[in-house]
Amino acid sequence: MSILTEVNTIDPTTPTSTELQAINETAIASEIKTTFTSEEIQKLLPHRYPFLLVDKIIDYVPGKKAVGVKNVTINENYFQGHFPGRPLMPGVLIVEAMAQVGGIVLTQMSPVEGGLLVFAGIDKVRFRRQVVPGDQLVMTVELLWVKQRRFGKMQGRAEVDGQLACEGELMFSLVN
Length: 176
Prior knowledge:
Helices cover 27% and strands 34% of the residues. It is built from 4 helices and 6 strands. The N and C termini lie far apart (71 Å).
């Protein structure tokens, strides 16, 4: 009788299946990389100075979204001519920076060895605020869909100090 009682008694030092599941989920979550340094970004994207427009990734959710940062400085070479005496970050470069953040999401989803992710289209892009030297551009890019691992569409938002600077839809294609 005492043996049956011991078998049916829950040992408080042994984790339950729910506790084991929580431990496993925590271990898996801790293995997923959620931030990327400039050096790690350069391992994922083919862009280099002066066209690498993402300084770091501050949040990454695999297969869903990434949040990247671009610190805009007066040293950017495009400010010499855009515009002398009133420097503004060109809108096309804001869109390109958002696309590079989106590239992080796509390159992490499936290998693109021998291939290159490029723009396939840009829709509904609107500029809402000027971006000037000293601003920190925070770009959030969310995956909307992917087809055949060759085409994708993303929604991008770029903000400065919590104010919307640019938004739009970005389409990508994998070319060989």
